Amino acid sequence: MRIDLDIPPGVFDDEFRAEDFAARVREFAALELLRARRLHEHEAVRMLGVERWELVAMMERAGIVPTEKQFDQIKGELGRLVAARGAQTSRGEN
User: Is 35 in the same domain as 69?
Assistant: First the structure.
């Protein structure tokens, strides 16, 4: 997909380059698509031309939890539930 923006003349110069702005817009779009669960992380890596760790840093700065951290959270919650269930069972509770 290609999105064209009508930006007034004179906005860009040597200190605020069009190329840098385009890269920021592309990053914002990828992060918002990730947040909306319309784009997979590996697709965002390819789209942005970054390494996985760079995408994870971008996601964390934007308040988006990367997949592996979501799995770690789920695993931690499951471990706590299993431990609590085991404690109930050992006390004879159901």
Answer: no
